[in-house]
C-alpha cells in the first residue's frame, strides 16, 4: 500500500525543502541631469526593451522617481547594476541604478 510520502512528498515534507532563491528588481532612479535619450538607450541596451517600452519605463522614472527595468536572479541583477553604472559614468551622467529583493 502506498504511503502518504510516496503519493505527495512535497506536501508531507514541505518543511525540508529549500525555498526558491529570491529574485531581484533592478530599479532606475530619476535625476535632473541624465538626458532622456540616454536612459532610453540604457533600457534598450541592457534590458532588451524595444523603443516603445523603453520610453514608457523612462517616463515612469522621470514622473514617479523610480521604475523597474526587470527582475532577475541575484548575479544577473548585480551584473546589470554594475554595467549600467559603468556606462553612465563613462558618459558622465549621474544615472543611478540599484537592485532590491523582490520579496
Ligand atoms: N529627469 C531626466 C531629465 O529630465 C530624465 C531621466 C529619466 C533621468 C529617468 C534619469 O532614470 C532617469 N532629463
TrEMBL record:
<protein>
    <recommendedName>
        <fullName>ATP-dependent Clp protease adapter protein ClpS</fullName>
    </recommendedName>
</protein>
<keyword id="KW-0378">Hydrolase</keyword>
<dbReference type="InterPro" id="IPR014719">
    <property type="entry name" value="Ribosomal_bL12_C/ClpS-like"/>
</dbReference>
<comment type="similarity">
    <text>Belongs to the ClpS family.</text>
</comment>
<feature type="domain" description="Adaptor protein ClpS core">
    <location>
        <begin position="20"/>
        <end position="97"/>
    </location>
</feature>
<dbReference type="InterPro" id="IPR003769">
    <property type="entry name" value="ClpS_core"/>
</dbReference>
<dbReference type="Pfam" id="PF02617">
    <property type="entry name" value="ClpS"/>
</dbReference>
<comment type="subunit">
    <text>Binds to the N-terminal domain of the chaperone ClpA.</text>
</comment>
<dbReference type="GO" id="GO:0006508">
    <property type="term" value="P:proteolysis"/>
</dbReference>
<dbReference type="InterPro" id="IPR022935">
    <property type="entry name" value="ClpS"/>
</dbReference>
<keyword id="KW-0645">Protease</keyword>
<dbReference type="GO" id="GO:0008233">
    <property type="term" value="F:peptidase activity"/>
</dbReference>
<comment type="function">
    <text>Involved in the modulation of the specificity of the ClpAP-mediated ATP-dependent protein degradation.</text>
</comment>
